[in-house]
């Protein structure tokens, strides 16, 4: 919205300029108005906006543990009201009158949602700080239909011994991965998500970890060389 | 014939009388005389050259060149035989003595036989001496018989000589030894000859019928005669013919022995046999058929060979000569019999013998002793470019949160100098820190020079750091050795000797000094004691007094 405003301003400015040139002798127009971005409560829609994130039962206790870590940045830096609805097992977010940007609410919602998916707070905090971080989720059956033992083995391959493989992929691709039974969530920037997703898909489809490592190595070195 | 003879002789005489210069100019009369003379000579020599194709010299309308060629045709073989005969005479001069004047014609037969025997022997000799001059053999024989060089007189003389010798031999039937003595040589032994002839006689009787069929042989066969020990073919008819011929001609000629051109001659061998055994028996039993001469025999052989070869050429070739032959085209198992030659692309397997094994073992032992093992060494790979830094994959859970990670990345992008230490750099730093610490300690141990404390770059917050950090100049470690003055280090004078270095006298002196000192001290002590006691006494006495 702000961008669009700017464009309009620009065009208006240019036209006014032309007009100015033409009618230089006739009139002096007032200076171009400068509008500040609209605050959420000034927006034509509802003044206060809500978001509700449901809490899965396995994240209830961790949420209780790290609640303050979640609450503090949301409330103080993002200027979004946050509360936990215990009965409904939901985290509710609300804009305040001094919320600077409407996107803050969405970011906070994403942040809380990421935590609910299983990511750590310190990792999920990155969503608040960076714009372009996304969470991608997919299931193992999306990649390859596996049943029973094969599925278990695939999950084992993904994690590796003590989570080694997962950490390797995380470190190499600068992402965070959560493997929840058959669901896989990846948090990171768009390109990095792609790298991580490809590596995970290879693992699901049966490549040994060593092969995936070599591929990772090649890709990351190429990425690093680019800068 | 007598007329021509006379004419010829006359022509010769006339030629002799012509003086040589007049011969240079062409003169038809002279040429005429010359032609007639040469004709006469030709005809006289004709009997001695049976092989010449011309019966008489053709002079009418012939060129000088052609006449000369005709004469040459006749004379060439004659000359060669005469030469040979001469050589033989040179070698065996005693043979010349055997040529005697002919006595009578009645004994022609025996003489002939003798002559033939002689000739045979001599011819055998000739043959042994000669090379393969088969064509001229007949002529040779003739010449041997004649022994002349194309002159009638000489021929006659030789004939006479021969016949004379024959007469002598006739008288002595078994004088072959004498003859043999003259003719015999290292090659020819009469005894061996007789043995062989006896053997062949038996063969002859078997082959008599066979040979009778071959009476009409070629001219060449007739020429190949005596000297061939293989053939014993004779005909009684020929014998008789020969007798007649001998009687007809005054001189012994070729035809006497070998008959006319259409008749077979007798074997000289047979004459030998006759000489050795009963002549009469020989005459009756053996037929003096025209046996084939050496040349004829050889020709026969060659002819048979030719026939065989022609037959082979006409027939289809053997399968080995046919080029590409499949198994169906050749007889079964025929490849076994033929030694086929084809390229082996495989090296033949080495036959393991004891020597081979021994050689291999010897080589192995030698190599072990020398330590010369030809191990394959990897060829050094040339360093093409600097090894790329391989990114290490860290499989531990990262300590930083995702936000920090991206922050770092952003900072790296914007400010390249503030690049965070890579894993390798951290290790390096750790290693360098440890080393510096160790170096400090080692320096403190080994040097007394001051070395400042190493700067360990460590980015960390230290709260209680003083504002100033003064360097201490005082050395870290100090030893007394530097502090003491020399006299403090060593207190003594003179030449200080070790206990072991001391001599007996010096030891005694030392002991004496010690005793003196001890004594002096002891005396001092006593004096002190005495004084103290005195004082005490005085004191006591005073007290007592007071």
UniProtKB/TrEMBL annotation, chain B:
Residues 117-137, 149-174, 193-203, 210-248 have a biased composition (Acidic residues). Residues 507-518 have a biased composition (Basic residues). One of its GO terms (biological process) is rRNA processing. The keyword Ligase does not apply. Residues 110-299, 495-518 are annotated as: Disordered. Its main location: nucleus. InterPro entries: Mpp10 (IPR012173). Keywords: Nucleus, Ribonucleoprotein, Ribosome biogenesis, rRNA processing. It comes from the Eukaryota. Residues 175-192, 253-272, 495-506 have a biased composition (Basic and acidic residues). One of its GO terms (cellular component) is Mpp10 complex. The keyword rRNA processing applies. Pfam families: Mpp10. It is found in: Nucleus, Nucleolus. Involved in nucleolar processing of pre-18S ribosomal RNA. Belongs to the MPP10 family. This is U3 small nucleolar ribonucleoprotein protein MPP10. It comes from Medicago truncatula.
């Amino acid at each position: 919205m702000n961008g669009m405003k700017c464009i309009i301003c620009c065009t208006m400015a240019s036209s006014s300029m032309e007009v100015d040139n033409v009618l230089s002798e006739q009139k002096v127009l007032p200076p171009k108005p400068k509008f500040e971005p609209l605050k959420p409560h000034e927006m034509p829609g509802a003044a206060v906006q809500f978001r509700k994130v449901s809490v899965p039962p396995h994240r209830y206790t961790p949420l209780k543990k790290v609640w303050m870590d979640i609450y503090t940045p949301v409330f103080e830096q993002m200027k979004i009201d946050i509360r936990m609805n215990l009965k409904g097992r939901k985290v509710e977010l609300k804009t305040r009158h001094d919320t600077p940007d409407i996107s803050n609410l969405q970011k906070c919602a994403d942040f809380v949602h990421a935590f609910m998916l299983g990511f750590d707070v310190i990792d999920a905090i990155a969503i608040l700080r960076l714009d372009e971080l996304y969470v991608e989720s997919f299931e193992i059956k999306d990649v390859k239909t596996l049943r029973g033992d094969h599925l278990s083995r695939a999950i084992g391959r993904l994690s590796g011994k003590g989570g080694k493989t997962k950490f390797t992929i995380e470190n190499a691709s600068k992402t965070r991965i959560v493997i929840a039974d058959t669901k896989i969530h990846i948090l990171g920037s768009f390109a990095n998500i792609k790298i991580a997703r490809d590596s995970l898909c290879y693992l699901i489809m049966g490549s040994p970890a060593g092969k995936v490592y070599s591929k990772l190595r090649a890709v990351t070195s190429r990425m690093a060389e680019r800068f | 014939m007598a007329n021509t003879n006379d004419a010829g002789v006359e022509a010769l005489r006339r030629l002799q009388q012509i003086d040589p210069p007049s011969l240079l100019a062409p003169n038809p009369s002279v040429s005429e005389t010359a032609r007639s003379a040469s004709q006469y000579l030709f005809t006289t020599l004709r009997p001695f050259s049976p092989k010449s194709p011309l019966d008489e010299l053709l002079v009418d309308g012939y060129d000088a060149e052609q006449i000369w060629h005709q004469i040459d045709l006749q004379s060439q073989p004659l000359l060669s035989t005469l030469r040979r005969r001469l050589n033989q005479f040179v070698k065996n001069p005693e043979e010349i003595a055997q040529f005697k004047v002919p006595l009578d014609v009645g004994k022609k037969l025996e003489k002939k036989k003798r002559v033939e025997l002689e000739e045979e022997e001599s011819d055998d000799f000739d043959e042994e001496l000669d090379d393969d001059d088969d064509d001229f053999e007949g002529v040779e024989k003739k010449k041997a018989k004649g022994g002349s060089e194309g002159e009638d007189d000489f021929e006659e003389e030789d004939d006479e000589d021969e016949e004379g010798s024959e007469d002598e031999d006739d008288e002595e039937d078994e004088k072959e030894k004498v003859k043999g003595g003259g003719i015999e040589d290292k090659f020819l032994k009469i005894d061996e000859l007789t043995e062989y002839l006896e053997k062949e006689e038996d063969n002859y009787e078997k082959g008599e019928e066979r040979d009778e069929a071959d009476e009409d042989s070629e001219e060449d066969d007739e020429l190949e005669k005596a000297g061939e020990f293989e053939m014993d073919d004779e005909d009684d008819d020929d014998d008789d013919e020969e007798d007649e011929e001998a009687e007809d001609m005054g001189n012994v000629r070729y035809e006497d022995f070998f008959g006319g051109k259409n008749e077979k001659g007798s074997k000289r061998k047979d004459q030998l046999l006759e000489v050795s055994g009963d002549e009469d028996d020989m005459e009756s039993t053996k037929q003096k058929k025209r046996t084939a001469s050496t040349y004829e025999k050889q020709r026969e052989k060659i002819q048979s060979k030719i026939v065989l070869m022609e037959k082979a050429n006409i027939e289809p070739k053997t399968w080995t000569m046919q080029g590409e032959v499949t198994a169906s085209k050749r007889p079964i198992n025929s490849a076994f019999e033929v030694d086929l030659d084809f390229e082996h692309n495989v090296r033949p397997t080495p036959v393991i013998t004891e020597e081979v094994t021994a050689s291999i073992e010897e080589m192995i032992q030698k190599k072990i002793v020398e330590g010369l093992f030809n191990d394959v060494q990897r060829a050094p790979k040339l360093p093409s470019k600097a090894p790329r830094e391989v990114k290490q994959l860290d499989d531990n859970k990262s300590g930083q949160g995702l936000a920090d990670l991206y922050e770092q990345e952003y900072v790296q992008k914007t400010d390249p100098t503030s690049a965070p230490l890579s894993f390798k750099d951290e290790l390096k730093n750790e290693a360098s820190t440890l080393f510096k610490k160790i170096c400090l300690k080692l320096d403190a141990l080994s040097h007394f020079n001051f070395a400042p404390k190493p700067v360990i770059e460590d980015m960390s917050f230290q709260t209680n750091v003083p504002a100033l950090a003064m360097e201490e100049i005082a050395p870290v470690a100090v030893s007394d050795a530097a502090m003491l003055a020399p006299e403090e280090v060593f207190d003594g004078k003179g030449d200080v000797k070790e206990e072991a270095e001391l001599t007996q006298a010096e030891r005694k002196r030392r002991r004496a000094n010690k005793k003196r000192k001890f004594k002096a001290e002891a005396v001092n002590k006593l004096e002190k004691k005495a004084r103290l006691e005195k004082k005490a006494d005085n004191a006591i006495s005073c007290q007592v007094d007071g």
